Amino acid sequence: MEIAPRSLPLASAFPSPPQAANPMRQRVRELVLPDLGLGDIPIVASLWLVKRGARVRQGESVLEVLAGDVTVDLPAPVSGVLSRRLVAEDDHLHPGQALAIFVADEET
User: Fold this and answer.
1) What domains can be seen in the chain, in order of their start residue?
2) pTM (whole model) above 0.85
3) pLDDT for the residue numbered 8
4) Mapping DSSP to helix (H, G, I), strand (E, B) and coil, where does residue 70 land?
5) How would DSSP label each residue in 33-68?
């Protein structure tokens, strides 16, 4: 009597170990342009107030944006380090756009 070989899907033959949460990913936060409620007025990144690599406190102003005649200071979403600027000064922006990436301090 012959026994037919059994075929198993690769995933079930070699199950992957459970994935631990990546602590670094949990510490990365974006600064996102909120809806300023100004309608169709163009919004422009006016002035970065901190340099890349600078340590900031949550709530500290990091970027000025200009909407018509109104200047709005955008605060850091967390205490930590400004890791990357995603927009340059004079770039046109839209609500919901990611503007910067921060790496949060452990306690944030």
Assistant:
1) 40-108 (2.40.50.100)
2) no
3) 43
4) strand
5) ----S-TT--EEEEEE-S-TT-EE-TT-EEEEEEET
